[in-house]
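Notes continue from the previous slide.

Worked example: a multi-chain complex. Inputs as given:
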Amino acid sequence: MQHEPYDIGPARPRLDALAKACGAELFSADSYPPGLLWAGARRCGVPHGILRGVDAAAARALPGVHAVLTREDVPGSNRQGIVHKDMPVLCGTRVRHCGDPVALVVAESRDILRQALALVRVDIEPLPVLADIDAALAPDAPLIHEADGSNVLLAAEIRKGDAEEALAQCDVVLEETFFTPSQAHAFLETENGLACLDEDGVLHLTVSTQAPFRDRFEIGHALGLAPWKIRVHSPFLGGGFGGKDGATVQCLLALAALRLPGRTIKMWWDREESFLAGYKRHAARMHYRLGAMHDGTLKSVVCRLWYDSGAYAHLGGEIMELGMEHAAGPYRVEHMDCRGLCVYTNNPVAGAFRGFGVAQVSLAFEGMMDRLAGRLGRDPLDLRRQNALRRGDRNCAGVTLTSSVGLDECLRRVRDHELWTTRHTWKKAAPPFTRRGVGIAAVFNGMGYGRGLADNAIAKIELTPDGRFVIYSGVPDMGQGNASTFAQIAGEMLCQDAGRLEVVQPDTERAHPSGSASAGRTTYTFGQALIKACELMTAKLVRRAALALMIDEPGGITLVPGAVRHLPTGKELPLAAMGAMLPRDDRVCVAEYLMPVSREVPDTGRDFPLGFPHLIFPFAAHLVRVEVDELTGLVRVCDYLAATDGGRVLNPQNFHQQIEGAVAQGLGFALMEGFGTENARITTPDLSTYLIPTSLDFPDTQSVAVETLEHSGPFGMKGVGEVGLNGPLPAVASALSDALGARIDRAPVTPAMILELLASRGAQA
Amino acid sequence: MIIRFCINGRDTELDVRGDERAVDILRERLGLTGTKEGCGTGECGACAILVDGRARLSCLTLAAQLDGRDLTTIEGLGSPEAPHPLQQSFAERGAVQCGFCTPGMVVAAADLLARDPHPGREAIREALSGNLCRCTGYSRILDAVHKVDER
């Protein structure tokens, strides 16, 4: 039989792909154990109010209803939240957004559940609705969280140098305000899970979650349980993008399971509930002043950011932090004064979303660069190259970039690409009543948790008695392919074929705590831990083989597919023999890795309890060519190019998948997706009102890898999951500005906006 | 009411209520969870199955409407041990990320190929436009269908 180690470097199909394509992979939504009960939350439906009472009598009386639980039934703190614990499991006295849950119903079937939910009567005294940041900041605004004394979740600043003073010395000062909308993750598998309390008092959950280990603590805190009595299993997720990082169904399911021991409870939000109660990207307003010299040197950025956190904190402070840390772009800027306010409103809860606070500021800093290029009469790409961060520079937050920096090379790849070199002729060939424009954007996205929180992973690998290796993953795979990459790392380290490698999805009882699948850290952190675990495994197997082969010196013993071989004599021992020979304790290796943090201590950012600053950044340069129909305002994206520095590429197929998917989501953000609310009530409750890209909407993305070497990363890689999302909006805005001669300051750019811009600039057309 | 249909080559008889949806009897009563539900309102395509050879949305179909039909779900097209060429192509060409839309995509593509064995890329875009994918940006899905015959 021919061997082919499942190793690093080639484009290899993912190990999970075929089972998924055959419908054989079981997601958490696919589990229907016998005798299960259905749980659902009664959502309050009112953006802001005093909860005077919940009348559950009629619902409880309905045959087939097993429980109707309200605030009084919640043991523990009743508070959820990753850092800032401000979100009730069930609301008691106050409701803060339309999706707030006020009762939990458990029923025999989904039909009975639906009927019972409709029978729960809620008495709410409405309070003034704080539908946007300004309303929440008004002096007479009611407090959404009274204990906080303010509707500001976090006020923070990052300063470097003396930005105001520097601005006064600049040859050119530009000013602009930008707006980005709320965006829904719209993963195909909506939030769901199962829970059961067993006879030993252990609470078992299977959840579509990005953070099974943290979930244990969050559930334990909210419901007053010992976290080690909670076991969480996270099968492959049907999409996550940040929206399954944090509490969704977990505490509600756990609460139902505690009330009904021995019964398996299932909860699965429908699309509307997912849009209503799930997390969103923070809508943002960003006021910028940029100062530069005649020769194009950037000098100073003064910016004020406002992020709409919605009704609860989630990671609002940390998300705004990352935006602030990137606020002046991937450029050398001597002076920055960035102040941010993350504000509670009665809008749906904002939370983590791919591009984590950075997708917003990317429109602003790149918009300023385009304006500067226009003012100075400079080529926009050349101006970016002139100021692009290089290794050894300090970024706008004052951190020295000791890690890999490939931005300039990304920009050069775009500059030399025919989509850029032929842009003038392409634009001139615009058909009648259309205009064409070409735009670029340079972006970056800090990787990992940042300082203040250990970005740690613990990998475990086992040699089975039949001679295979099982990797116990500690971080979920929401679709990005890290599970398969883990197998590839083990295949490389242990020289084994795919058939001898198995990855077990996270289970808090079988794997070790390894943090969340988020922040572009998943493959980086766990991968490094796994490399170490594989080194331990190799060293161990070599020594054990030496015993079995009666060789006095383990040098010259190596792993080959399916066996251990002594090179000087050619003697082999099959892995199955090794597996059968060793006791379990001796077949397992565990190792951990802690992501490095910046050793600098910038004299700023003290408002952030954790997450500041970051040390490692993937970079990208994007190019888009658009065509605008002057008669209808429709925008057609004609070509898209993304050059990405994600360090060394471990598997080109996975790498390009991440970029292509992020670009599609980013183009949706730029041109289609504004999550709608009217007076804090959602106006886009389904996929016919909230439109995401289809196969017809956008062209194929040309993805180019710029392979820098990230010394700290596994085989030289950096996390590449997020940076691709930050480029499309600023690139599209840049291209539309080029096409229309009008500046774009907000998203999504709709045909109506285009027509308005065309009308207002009709004279110049 | 009693309904009879052939599903994945097997004659089946089920007692269903008038308001039961096809997607629910497939997933919950027949254990065919390869058919996914992403919206419940006919907008995402994840629940597509072949009804008499044509792709139809099982979330909008009542179980009773299956009576007398010949049904193929994603499991009926192939298995990891014996995959359909489309399933193989999706897996090899990187068309699968989270995989939740994939069964519906494969079913929609199978319908297309039955009618048009060698569709151009634009025809594939058109045929799959009712199936939402949030992970891939679609291009590898288009490739997987376009190059299904190339190995």
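Summary box: The CA atoms of residues 124 and 142 of chain B lie 6 Å apart. Residues 85-146 of chain B form a domain with the DNA polymerase; domain 1 fold (CATH 1.10.150.120).
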